[in-house]
Amino acid sequence: MRYAFALLLALAVPLLAVGQEAAEEDPMAWIGRVYSAGQKLSYRGVIVYQSDGRSETSRIVHVFAGDHELEKLESLDGSPRQVIRTRDQVKCYLPRQRTLIVDQTGNSRGFPSRLVASQASLSSHYRIRLGPLDRVAGLQTRQILLEPLDELRYGLTLWADIDSGLLLKARMSNDKGEVVEQFSFTEVDIGGAVPGDEFTSPFEGEEGWKVINARGSEVSGEGLGWRLASEVPGFKMTSAVRRRLGDAHGEVVHLVFSDGLASMSVFIEPMPAVGEKSLGATSSGPVNIFTRRLEGYLVTVLGETPARAVEVLANSVEVAGR
């Protein structure tokens, strides 16, 4: 009996090693690790964002507390800005303007929680493969390459920490291989203790601040009033909210579409009574924008996607029931 058990154990150890090695070479397994690590790990560090010849530096602190996340992002250069995200709300403090913007927590996520979902459907629109080992912020990383299979998406290179799976660097590139934007940790501490007061802003409770409530009400089905004449391949609606943005804009419908990696926002508002709005295609850094008129409304789509993608989505919007 002991001999049989020893034989089974001897056979199992190589099989376990092979299974672990196979997982390490599976691109989709790495996508799953990156998705999970960005939400369920505690980390803090300094991030550099680069795009269109400019750069910004921010400090991030993230904690996974039981069943929810706490996160603070603070700009270290340029105009001061502090964003604190808790379970049910996001607060954005703008000290120079003495303005606080309050919104509900949504599906839109930033670096390093770049992926909206760990889903196999990504492979329908991206060729996903592993790149070489590399080093970022002093840590060993594995490159993951996501190459678009159509003109509606940018390519993305991810650098994931070998040990934790945390995304340490992300580079977006266009079809010419040019860098559209890049996020990268320059220093990072993964799994360290984070003081609870990290998520309390020093501006909290100060008098004389203007508070803007950007919270909206979620809508769905017939209550939405809008639909797509045809879907943009791979992009699914992840949220739909009605917002009141003041008398100048009236009630605005905000829709978010994502393919699990890239996302686009649709804003539908009554046509302004005065002033001219720029129609057609425009851009702002890595963000492409397309605006059109539709039966007394203004439809604006923006996203960190190729110009063709935002145009296709904008032209697909139509009034529901027609």
Q: What is the topology?
A:
Layout: H1 2-24, H2 27-40, E1 43-51, E2 54-65, E3 68-75, E4 82-85, E5 90-94, E6 99-103, E7 126-136, E8 139-148, E9 155-161, E10 167-173, E11 179-190, E12 210-213, E13 217-218, E14 226-228, E15 236-244, E16 251-258, E17 263-270, E18 280-284, E19 287-294, E20 297-303, H3 307-316, E21 317-319
Parallel strand pairs: 6-12
Antiparallel strand pairs: 1-2, 1-11, 2-3, 3-4, 4-5, 5-6, 7-8, 8-9, 9-10, 10-11, 13-15, 14-21, 15-16, 16-17, 17-20, 18-19, 19-20
Would you summarize the structure shown here?
The chain is mainly beta. It is 15% helix and 46% strand. The protein folds into two domains: 20-199, Clam (outer membrane lipoprotein receptor (LolB), chain A), CATH 2.50.20.10; 216-319, MucB/RseB, C-terminal domain (Phosphorylase Kinase, domain 1, 2-Layer Sandwich).
> Looking at the structure, what is the overall shape?
globular
Distance between the amino and carboxyl termini: 75 Å
Rg over alpha carbons: 22 Å
Major beta-sheet overview: 12 strands, mixed
**Would you report the number of β strands?**
21
Strand order of the largest sheet: 7-8-9-10-11-1-2-3-4-5-6-12
Whole-number count of domains: 2
Assign the CATH architecture of the largest domain: Clam
| Helix vs. strand class | mainly beta
CATH class call of the largest domain: Mainly Beta
H/E element string? HHEEEEEEEEEEEEEEEEEEEEHE
Q: Kindly report the name of the CATH homologous superfamily of the largest domain.
A: Lipoprotein localisation LolA/LolB/LppX
Helical element count? Answer: 3
Weakly predicted, low-confidence segments: 1-10, 13-22
- Please give the share of residues in helix: 10-25%
